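Hey, can you fold this?
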Amino acid sequence: MEQVLLVDDEVMLLDSLEIILSMNGYEIVGKARDGVEALEVLKSVDPGIALVDLNMKGMGGIDLIGEMKKKYPKIKILVLTTFYDDQNITEAISNGADGYLLKDSGKDAILGAIRQIMGGTTVLDAKVMQRLMTLVNNSARSGAGGTNGTGGTNGAGGANGAGGANGAFAGNRNGNGAENDAAPVEPLTEREKEIAGLMVEGFTNRQIADRLFISEGTVKNYISSIYDKTGIHDRVKLTIALRG
C-alpha cells in the first residue's frame, strides 16, 4: 500500500484528501499544516509521495519542496494548489516537484496523477503546461535560449502513432504541401504528441482520458491546443495529416 503525506493549511481539504485516498488504496501516514510540521513528520515516516500546497503560513510549499528533495531525495512530490503564476510554477519545478495540479482538477485527476508520478512520469495540469510553454517561448524570443527541460509529461502509455506528430508541423503548408516559412507553427509538447498519437489510433476523448489518467476536459484542452498549433480544426483531417 502506497504511503502518502498530506501538507496543506486547509483542514477540510486535508480531511477530504485523506478520505478520498484512503478509499482508493493509499495509506495516509501524516498530515501537516505547514512546511516545518511536514519536516517533523518526515522524521518518523517514509512516504512514497507527498501532496503539497504552496501558499501556507510559516514555511510554504516552495521552501518545503527544496528541503524535502535535499533530505529525502526519493520522495515524490505533487504540488496541489490554486496558484499557477509564473513564479510559483518555475520555482516549484526547479526545486524538484514531480507534478503540479490545480485543486479544482478533481478526484480522478489527482488519483491519476499520483499513479503516474509513482510510475516515473512528471504530471502537469494543462493550464500549468500552457503557462510553461509561454515562458519557454518568451525566453527563446528574448534570446535567453529555449529549454526543453521544464518537465513536460510523457511516458504514460505512449502511442505507436505518436511519431507522426513528432515534428510533422514544423511549418504551415499550402495546398501543394510546400512549406510557408513566413508562418511557422509552434511545436507540439510531448504530451500533445502523445495525445495526437492516440487520436491517430482512433481513441475517443474518454478513452484517451482513461489511458492517461487525466480528465476528459483536460484531453479536450490538449486537443484544442493541437488544433491551434497545427492550424487543422477538424479531427478527421488532423488524423489524416498525422498519419502522413
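Oh, and this one too while you're at it.
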Amino acid sequence: MFNKINSKKISIAVVGVGNCASSLIQGFHYYQEKKPEDAIGLMHREIGGYGAGDIEVVAAFDIDKRKVGLDVHQAIFSAPNNTTAFFPDLPSSAVSVRMGRILDGFAPHMADYEERNTFVLSREPESSEADVVEVLRESGTEILMNYLPVGSEEATRFYAKCALAAGVAFVNNIPVFIASNAEWAQRFADKNLPLIGDDIKAQLGATITHRALTDLFKKRGVKLDRTYQLNTGGNTDFLNMLNRSRLASKKQSKTEAVQSVAAERLDDENIHIGPSDYVPWQKDNKVCFIRMEGRLFGGVPMNLELRLSVEDSPNSAGVAIDSIRCAKLALLRGQGGVLHAPSAYFCKHPPQQFPDDEALQMVEQFISSN
C-alpha cells in the first residue's frame, strides 16, 4: 500500500466513469498544459499549492461493459458518454476500470435503450466490499469521488462504507444524503476522514443561477410569489431520471437550495424545481428554463423568464476540482468529518445552507487557515 498523503500529487478514485468523470479527468491534463494566466474556467487556480493538474486518478469503477477493463483514459470517451472532448489526446493512465457493485446503480428502464447505445450492463463478477477496499488501499487512493447516477441510494451507501473501511476521504457529488445525514456524518467524524457533500453545484448552472436570482429578489425587496425551474438534456443522467421514483432526493436537493435563500419559504404549490425530460439530440447540453413571478413597489406585479444553455458535465468539473483540493487540505491538516465550508459552497444540499456570498467567504477562510 502506498502512502501519498504528503506527496505533491492528489490521488483519487472515481465511482462512475460517465460524462462528469470524463470532463474532470480531461481537465487535469488540460490545465497542466496552461500557464497560470491562461487557466480560465477555474474558481481557484491553486488551493494549498495544488493546481488542477496535480490530481491523478489511481482507481476507477463502473458497471457498463464498454468501460470495464479499459484504461480509464479510454473509458471516459466510450459510449454512452457524449460530453465535449476538449482534451482528447490523453496518454495511457495504466489504470483499468474495474467492475463495481451494481445494487441500484442503474435504473431498470435503461436496459430498454440498449439499441440507442445508452447502457449495456457488464456481466463481469461484481466487486465485493473487500475488493473495493483492497483496491482503494493498494492504489494509494486519498479521496473517493462518487459520480453514480441519481437515485443510487444503496450503491452510494456501499461506496461510502468502503471509503470508511479503506480510510479515504469521500466527496459525494450526487443527491443521496451522506454528508447531510447525521449518522453518516458522525461515522466519518469518528474515523477522522474528510467528507464533502451532498449533490454538486455546477459552476454556473440552473441551481446556482436560480439561487442568485432568488437572493436578488430578497435583497431588492421584491416579493417572490411563485417560481419554477425546468431542465432538459440528452445525457444518460437525464435518461436515468425518466424513472421518477429515483428523483425524490434530487428534487428535494434542488428545491431546498432555492428555498434556503428566499426571504420567505414558498408553499409547495408555488415552487416547482426538477428535471423535466430527456431529449437525446441535446447530448450533454442542458437547457434550463426559469420563471419567477413577484411583486414590486406598490404591489405591482412583475415576472422574469430566463433560458440557460450549458454543457452539463464540464460545468461541474471545476467545482469538483476545488472539492478535491479542499479534501486534500483537510487530510494534510488531520481534519475529519463534514467539511462545512466546502460543502456549503460546492453542494446543493449541505448539512447547513448559507447564502453563496457567505459560503464563499467561509471557503476562502478554510483555504487560508493553517
